[in-house]
Amino acid sequence: MRKRGSSIDEESLRRIRDSCRLISTSASTVVFTGAGVSSESGIPVFRGSGGLWERYNPALFGNLLGLAIVFAFSPGKISYFAMEAISTFLSAKPNPAHEAIARLEQAGIVKGVITQNVDNLHRKAGSSNVFEVHGNIFRARCLKCGVRSDIPKEQILEKISSGEKGSSKRRDLLRMMDRFSGRCSCGGRRRPDIVLFGEMLPRETLTGALELASRCDCIIAAGTSALVYPAASIPEYAVQNGAALIEINPNRTRLTPLSQIWISLRASTALELISKEFLSKDELDAWRI
Ligand code: NAD
After folding, report:
1. How far is the C-alpha of 236 from the C-alpha of 219, rounded, in Å?
2. Which of 112, 196, 262, 274 is the most buried (most CB within 10 A)?
3. Which of 134, 190, 266, 276 is catalytic?
């Protein structure tokens, strides 16, 4: 691992090396991610400063009851919130952290990704065994028959470009939401397939995530404060089942005391260094690193 010209401190490099040793002796390594992993793609974290959630109170805009209250009293605010959130997600591209995780999966080092993010960036980067425990903003779910289907970005762009941005009329807002998710072939109304605060996690996805976490012997938790339950308990569950925890986060979290190794770096820096340790020169060339 190169140190020369690097601004990474010696202690962090040592922890990266220790992590690589741990991963290489593990039969199954799993990655658990949170909003911090996508922050370098321009999507604000939930608890950071300057983000969407500083302007839109999550107690109102993050759950169905709160949204219903805003819808009743100031629907225009929902319209602005939805447009701002959608355009942030639409413009985001995978960053080196997503790409490193995808490379490690394709090389057989990482068995799967469990993510709390709804931004689709792991799939976009090339990860295939992805468990999105809070759903995916680019997918819709029919409220009548429950069928899920992808909403292509182009379709969203086309539909919202004719939307009533900032309209304060409830009827216009419903029309805009319909345009975003579209109607199901069964005639049912569809909604974005994401989990709001107070809602149940999708059962099949959660079961798959817990199975993966219970079988792994190393779990890397990157970019999460691990405060949003029940998803946040997944790394703890893995540890209880005997897995070693590597945490990647510039800040301490409630997972730090449980972790065998805490890497206090940005996810992109740490994961890129880890992936470079595992991939051959040919593989790295193929990914143009
Ligand atoms: P959080 O906002 O509570 O915590 C983010 C964590 O990431 C913090 O601990 C912070 O120190 C760390 N962090 C910030 N930048 C980082 C970087 N470059 N590298 C590594 N770590 C970094 O996020 P959470 O724990 O995921 O919980 C928030 C909930 O809100 C999630 O469950 C998710 O569903 C939702 N959310 C999703 C997105 C998204 O899809 N991208 C964005 C915001 C919120």
Report:
1. 10
2. 274
3. 134
Residue 134 catalytic? yes
For residue 169, the CA-to-ligand 1 centroid distance in Å is 33
For atom 40 of ligand 1, which residue has the closest CA? 117
Window from 135-144, 173-182, 186-195, 219-228 with minimum mean pLDDT: 173-182
> Domains of the chain, with CATH numbers?
1-42+94-134+201-289 (3.40.50.1220), 44-91+137-194 (3.30.1600.10)
Within a 10 A sphere around the Cβ of 45, how many other Cβ atoms?
A: 19
pLDDT above 80 (res 149): yes
- The candidate with the shortest Cα–Cα distance to 85, out of 35, 130, 141, is 35
Provide the residue type at 75 as one letter.
P
Q: What sign for the dihedral angle of Cα 36, 39, 44, 48?
A: positive
b/e sequence 87-120, b meaning 16+ C-beta within 10 Å = ebbeebebbbbbbbbbbbbbeebbbbbbbbbbbb
